Amino acid sequence: MASKRTPIHSNFRPSNLSSSKWETKGTKPLPDPSSVKKIFLMVLLFGCKKVMFTPTNVLRGYALALFLISVIGKQMPIPKTFFSRSDNFLNLYFVKLGWLWTLIVAFPFILLTSFVYCSGKRDRILKHLARLVVATGFWFFLTKFFVYIESNVGSCIGREPSKEISKLNKIDCISGKHFWRGFDISGHTFLLIYSMLILIEETKVIQGWETIEDFIRNEEHTRQSKSQSNGPLSNLSAKDFECVKISYSKFTSYIRGLFIGITALVIIWNVMLISTMIYFHDVSEKLISGIIAVFSWFITYKVWFAYPHVLPYAPGEGDFKYFKDTASIVPPPRKKRNNIVNEKGERIPTFLGMPLYGLQTQKSTQSNGSRS
């Protein structure tokens, strides 16, 4: 007669299932299994993060490349293309309305993300949206200033040189069908660079966004089991925690969609910036506008908004902290690889830090021993 088999699961479960310790602690809940759609979305978001959060050294090389492209475009004959026309549809419907597109994607993104990490508190959400008000003020004032400089720093040039024509202002010069030559600081260059820097700063809050789901799951389990919690959400009241839980589940899909749309807009901005560097404006006009754009971004996001609890709030400043600005983290120096050599001084190939030949020798020894 066959002997009675012991259930398999008995080897992996504690013998005393009715103990109070087991019932109180339980196990932490696991996330739902990933579907093909979710995996594809994660891959797409990973690619978008690679585009948006470029390392600092790469950005420096990119800025240098833009400067060289600008010089080459001015000194060498470049063939006319779709981008050399100022009436191409990307320039007419995107760059001409560039700040409007920036607000269309940035406003709902800031609104939804701040609603989650501010637990739905209206006053704090408004303090995050105030960053767009400040940025719009910088854009409006500086673009008007560029127009003022171009209108007052220049001269009118007619078909025949004349002192009377050269004294005309810009409006009378153009109305008289003459040509106005002024110092035209590139407003497009300023807009494209400033908009990209703002969108990159605002979307940094999506780094680590998936960890909020783990924080919610663990905190919910901890509160149900009435055990002590020291997680990022432990200081939230029951009302605030419920708001974070519901808003995260409700808004995350929209936030991810907006992030993908922002990435697409930044790609368009890069394409149009390169075409501007090649075909339009003098090098000095583009260089000055780029410096002003970087300075405007730095003085607001790195100086003004960097102070905690000062209006406006910095991106991600809320009721709990869930992400780190990886752009400001200096990576540790790479360790030199330790070469493994044999008795003859020859280098041994390794895999994950272990010698391949040693593993093969060990396996062969074990197999021979088992056979004997």
Automatic annotation (TrEMBL):
Keyword vocabulary terms for this entry: Endoplasmic reticulum, Hydrolase, Lipid metabolism, Membrane, Transmembrane, Transmembrane helix
Bilayer-crossing regions: 59-78, 98-117, 129-149, 258-280, 287-307
Native source organism of the sequence: Bemisia tabaci
A single MF term (Gene Ontology): coenzyme A diphosphatase activity
Main location: endoplasmic reticulum
Keyword Transmembrane applies: yes
Membrane topology designation: Multi-pass membrane protein
Compartments in which it is found: Endoplasmic reticulum membrane
Protein name (database record): Fat storage-inducing transmembrane protein
Biased segments, Polar residues type: 8-21
GO biological process, one term: lipid droplet organization
InterPro entries attached to this UniProt entry: FIT (IPR019388), FITM1/2 (IPR046401)
Ranges where the record places region Disordered: 1-30
A GO cellular-component term linked to this record: endoplasmic reticulum membrane
